[in-house]
Specification:
With about 450 residues, the protein is an alpha+beta fold. It has helices spanning about 10-20, 50, 65-80, 100-105, 140-145, 180-185, 220-245, 285-290, 305-315, 325-330, 370-380, 420-440, and strands at about 30-35, 35-40, 85, 85-90, 90-95, 100, 125, 130, 150-160, 170-180, 250-255, 260-270, 275-285, 295-305, 350-360, 385-395, 405-410, 440. Its EC number is 6.1.1.20. Its main location: mitochondrion.
């Protein structure tokens, strides 16, 4: 697959950033350029220059990055577990473009129009029809439509979120699909069927599939569902043992995802607590029916590389994944990807914490103000020295009825000590930006 490179046009980046530095209305923006392509902006556009700067970094492919090591171990497990005539049956797609349509990211996966994952507060939209993918599952339909049966999708995904040591607006996922036809699933029991007798696979529109039964989809037989569930769970438990050791304790938790049913989450008991490591389930038959001949059943799963790497290598801060410091990266320059590694801090630098409080304009309240908008603004101004932003207090004045918010911003550089003077300078820039962008009054 052709390697895609991304860059942000500086003039466009300045234009996008103008939302934080002037009172210009969003409609004054015209385009955002990504990989030499101009995307028309509109009222949905909320992608920032800082987020665009992460495009093309591909940490999961960089030698010596812990995310790349975990990726290699997962791929190796599936290559070893699934072979046909000596060749791996799983294909790997790890350089797909992160720019996707809302159809790919939501509609093709049966995500309802009113689902909260579609909100501007959760996603980075380029415009109302295009966004930076929120999950690798966004590529599932296109790969199935191309005729693939078993594949891994690996890459960076983008979600607006809180700021702390375990959350970052860009992280990396592995998603997978394994589909089987009747002759593959029931190779030794040809009398069994994937679909219920009343389901006509040649005309699936005549049968409205239901997920009311917690055990299975109405179109599938119980035997097919249970066999797929057994395979899925065995394969994923095997993966966890390959990563965390043969004696790792685990448990399954029932879950809900719009694109699978039934669905589960897998948790492992690690470092004296239960840690969720992945979500999975039986792919909704409607998804398979929408892409062509409907003669198979499939399972799918998704997991986050950062969560696994931080647990496996005892990495305390997610921002370290982006570090270019040789003291960090050299710890992961290994020949044996299965080697036991425990991250050793290069050095520990002190935090600086400043609070920011402001009165909201009459058009906003403490409940309608979007925290993720504020987090993006702080990150754009402060960059990667922002370790955490936390809503500290909401206040409504008893007499004036004015609404006020207070946030604590924690600053820390990963490679040197910050002085309070330089933190105060950046903090002042954040104050000025929030005043200009939201018309607030600093308290």
């Amino acid at each position: 697959m052709t390697k895609l490179l991304f860059r942000t046009n500086r003039a466009i980046a300045i234009q996008v950033l103008s939302r934080y530095k002037s009172n210009a209305a969003p409609q004054t923006l015209t385009t955002v350029r990504i990989k030499d392509k101009d995307h028309i902006t509109d009222e949905y556009t909320n992608v920032t220059p800082k987020i665009l700067s992460y495009l093309g970094r591909n940490l999961h492919l960089q030698k010596g990055n812990p995310l790349s090591i975990v990726r290699q171990r997962i791929v190796e497990y599936f290559y070893r577990r699934f072979t046909h005539r000596g060749k791996p049956t799983f294909s790997v797609y790890d350089n797909l473009s992160p720019v996707v349509s809302t159809k790919q990211n939501f509609d093709d996966l049966l995500i309802p129009n009113d689902h909260p994952s579609r909100l501007k507060s959760d996603c980075y939209y380029i415009n109302k029809d295009t966004l930076l993918r929120a999950h690798m599952t966004a590529h599932q339909t296109e790969l199935l439509r191309s005729g693939l049966d078993n594949f891994l999708m690996i890459g960076d995904v983008y979600r607006r979120d809180e700021i702390d040591s375990t959350h970052f607006p860009v992280f990396h996922q592995v998603d997978a699909v394994r589909s089987q036809r009747k002759e593959e699933l029931f190779c030794d029991k040809p009398d069994l069927e994937i679909f219920e007798p009343e389901f006509d696979s040649s005309n699936p529109n005549a049968f409205k599939n239901s997920i009311m039964d917690p055990m299975k989809q109405s179109c599938h037989t119980l035997e097919a569902t249970k066999l797929m569930e057994s395979q899925l769970k065995n394969h994923l438990i095997g993966l966890c043992k390959a990563l965390f050791g043969e004696n790792i304790k685990h448990r399954w938790v029932e879950a809900y995802f719009p694109f699978t049913h039934p669905s589960w989450e897998l948790e492992i008991y690690y470092e004296n607590k239960w840690l969720e490591v992945l979500g999975c389930g039986i792919v909704r038959n409607e998804i398979l029916a929408n892409i062509g001949p409907n003669n198979s059943i499939a399972y799918a799963f998704g997991l986050g590389l950062e969560r696994l790497a931080m647990a496996m290598y005892k990495i305390p801060d997610i921002r370290l994944m982006w570090s270019t410091d040789s003291g960090f990266l050299n710890q992961f320059q290994i020949e044996n990807i299965n080697a036991n590694i425990t991250y050793k801090p290069v050095s520990v630098y002190p935090q600086c914490t400043n609070d920011i409080s402001f009165w909201l304009p009459e058009t906003l309240t403490v409940d309608t103000f979007t925290n993720n908008d504020f987090y993006d603004l702080v990150r754009d101004v402060g960059g990667d020295i922002i370790e955490q932003v936390k809503l500290k207090d909401k206040f409504i004045h008893p007499k004036t009825k004015k609404h006020s918010l207070c946030y604590s911003i924690v600053y820390r550089h990963l490679e040197r000590t910050l002085t309070q003077a330089e933190v105060n300078k950046i903090h002042k820039q954040i104050e000025n930006a929030v005043v200009k962008n939201y018309n607030v009054v600093i308290r």
